Every structure is written in C-alpha cells, then in structure tokens.
Amino acid sequence: MKQKVNYLATFTNGILKENPVLRLVLGCCPVLAITTAVFNGIGMGAAATFVLICSNVVISLLRKVIPSGVRLPCYIVIIASFVTLVSMIVKAYVPALDESLGVFLPLITVNCIILGRAEMFASKNGVFASALDGLGMGIGFTLALVLMSAIREILGAGQFFGLQILPESVQPMSIMILPPGGFFVFGILMALAVFIERKTGKPLPKNAGCAACPAGENCPGNRDEEAEEVGK
Amino acid sequence: MAIKLAFIFFSMILVNNYVLVKFLGICPFLGVSGKLQSSVGMSAAVIFVMVLATAATWPVYTYLLVPYGLAYLNNISFILIIAVLVQLVELTLRKFVPPLYKSLGVYLPLITTNCAILGVTLLNIGTESLIDPSAPYYTFAEALVCAAGAGVGFGVAMVLFTGVRSVLDRTQPPKSFKGLPLTLVSAAIVSLSFMGFGGLLENLFGISA
Q1: Are A181 and B21 in contact (CB under 8 A)?
Q2: In what helix (H) or strand (E) does residue A202 lie, and over which residues does it extend?
Q3: How confident is the model at residue A4 (pLDDT cuts 50, 70, 90)?
Q4: Which of A29, A73, A220 minimises the CB distance to B23?
Q5: Where does chain A have alpha helices with state H?
Q6: For residue B194, what are the CA distances in angstroms to A85, A180, B12, B40, B197?
Q7: ipTM of the predicted structure?
Q8: Cα(B45)–Cα(A157) distance, rounded to whole angstroms?
Q9: What's the mean pLDDT in B3-30?
Q10: Interchain CB contact of A217 with B (< 8 Å)
C-alpha cells in the first residue's frame, strides 16, 4: 500500500511540486526559444517526455553497471541515442514540427532536465519509479511549455493553436513572439509562481535552479554565492 | 572572402547573438553573470571551446560521417567529441599552463553540457539546411569564424548583462520579482535593444545574408 502512495508521489512530483521549468528552472533554452506557438510547445514537450522516459528507464537498468567515474559521458551517450531516434521520427512524420523546432530538437541532448533526472533520480531508483518520474517530469515540462506558448501566441499573434482568438481589429503585440517576449513572459510567470508560493505560505527552496543543475557543484556562480554566505 | 568572413563574424555578435536572440546558453547567462570576473572567465572559456569544438567536429562530419552515409550520427558523435575535448583541454591546461587553468579551469566542466557549444557545431554543419536548402553550409574557415563570433557574442551579452545586474542589485523590486524574475525581465529589455541591430550589417557590408 505504502509503495503505491510513493509511486503516485513520484509521478505528481514533477508536475507540480518540482515543476522542472517554473520551480527548478531547468532547461530554459527551449522554453524561451520555441514557445512562440502552442503547436511547438506540445511537440517539444512530447519529444522531451519520450526521451526522458526512455533514458530514465535505460539508465535505471544500467545503474549498477556504469562506473561512477564515467557516468556522465555514459548518460550523455544514452540520451543522445534517444534524441537521434526522436529527431528521425519527427523528421519523417511531422516535418512541420521539425522545421519550427530547428536546432532545438537535437539540442534536447544537452537539456539539463534530462541529465538532471538521470543524475538525481534514475541512477538511484528502480525501473518503474524512474519511468514514472520521467513521465511526471515530462508532463510538467510540457504543461509549462504549453502555458507559456499559449500566452505568447494569444498576445503575439492573436491565435491559439492556429485558431484566431482575438478579433482581427485588435492589433497583436508581435514583440511577444520575438525573443524579448520570451524573456518577459518567462520572468512574469516565474514571479507569479513565487507570488502563489508566498500566498500559500510555503517558501521556495533558495537557488533551486543551481542546486538541481547537474553541474551544480562545479558551477562558479554557485560557489561564489556560497563563499559569500559563509563570509557574512 | 574577407568581407563574407567579417559579415559572418559581426552578424553572430550583433544580429544573431546566441544568448539574446537565439536563446542558446541561457543557463550560464543567468547563472554566472553575477560578477564581472566570472562572466569574463566563462566567456573566454566558451570562445576557446567553441572554436576548438568546431575545428574538431567540422572535419569529422565532412570527411568521415558524410562520405560513409552516417550523417544522422552527428548528434551523438558531436557531443562525444565535445566531452572528450573539454576533458583534454582541462588536463592539458592543468599540466602545462597552470595560470590559464586557474582562470578558466573552473568553467570548463560546465561547458560540456552547454547547449551553445553543441548548438554552434550543429548549426555550422547546417543542421537547418536539411530543412531549408538556402540556409548556409559553411566552409571550414567560415565555420571557425562563425564559432568565434558566436563566442564573442556570448561574451558581449554576458559582460553587458553583468553591468545591468550590478544596478539591479541595488534596487528594491516587489518581493515576488526578487532574484530570477527581475533578471529575466531585464534580460528582455537588453534583448529588445539587440533587436535594433537587425538589417544593420546588410547595409554596412552591402551583401544579403
């Protein structure tokens, strides 16, 4: 019984409590770059979810075989193989998506969410739990992408999923689908997440993005801040 | 030829800035841009590795993968080459150039999984040209210049943004905006200013992209 509850928690963890984009601030590059239309957001989310589940399962299966000294290169090769698989499938069956995602499809390889989950979860847990974790994180990633691309597409193009939402007479703010709009909407959404957090009274873990990053220990930004805090 | 190279170099810095316009390498941009010293160090390491990685991946792709019909392996082979290269550079610097290792070394492990590095190598061999035949497939010299330009552009964005952040540190934003949200909103304004460079180079060099 207790086992079941744990699986459920593992699954929902990625969707709300540790949403990779809005809470852990991982994988920001595709979040900013491809969220110009909801179609792209869903496509990117689905591709990343597939890679997350597959790489989590394989890494979890191999976790006792991979020596810890070379584990990061091993993870990267496993992830890159699945990314190659996904990008070939997308190229063959959804060429429109391939066109709009461009270089960000192969760049799923270096998305910190996937490497981060491999390092933090799949290398320490069983196969089923890792698959669920990948699914939850993938859904959380997709939801954040869809939310952000919906805002940008409605404000920037007056459309939602290609359908005209705003009346033609309303001039859309095309800045929203240009690069500055990406930074802006992401900043506002993150402020909103912090605001909701403060109202519900649970403090955000400080510096969650850096702490969750696989390179966290080596990160000079992180190190400086810690040194400062000790100094104070 | 020289004009074409200069055009590529400056377009990578101003018009196609990797951080502010193409959204590659956002993590170090947000994470390491707090202090001038660390942002300069990170940018130097990025320029260095970008050029080296391009110098290694372009010949491998052109003379090994393409002739044997293995072009679809570009992603796996590039990430491996980059990972090995970064390790090699780290070891070499530590052994032979300790002062340089001291200033760049801490940033090198971060760079393996930096999407700007993999991005520049993939864009240089024209990943996008598979979709759009008119997109550039650079020659070796052009690819190197493009990589250097992308790195310098990253550095320009980092250093400029460090200045912005030093001002932000002295402000009193609403509590919810404190930290990352405020940083992102101000990055939006910096990015907006880079939009102003669009079309500048076509007029300056008299060639179209």
Answers
A1: no
A2: none
A3: low
A4: A29
A5: 2-12, 28-33, 38-61, 71-93, 95-101, 112-117, 127-157, 179-200, 208-212, 220-231
A6: 36, 9, 12, 20, 6
A7: 0.83
A8: 39
A9: 84
A10: no
Token readout for B204 is 């300056």
Give the DSSP letter of residue A172: P
Which residues from A are below 8 Å from B28, CB to CB?
221
B148, two tokens: 């250097």
CA distance, residue A131 to nearest chain B CA (Å)? 23
Q: Determine the residue type at B159.
A: V
Helix, strand, or coil here: A127? helix
Structure tokens at B53: 């990685």
pLDDT at A229: 37
- Residues on chain B touching A100 (C-beta within 8 angstroms): none
Mean residue pLDDT of chain A comes to 79
Burial class of residue B128, CB neighbours in 10 A (0-12, 13-18, 19+)? middle
Interface test with A, best of B39, B74, B76 (most A CBs within 10 A): B76
SS3 label, residue B69 = coil
* Residue among A19, A56, A48 nearest A111 (CA): A48
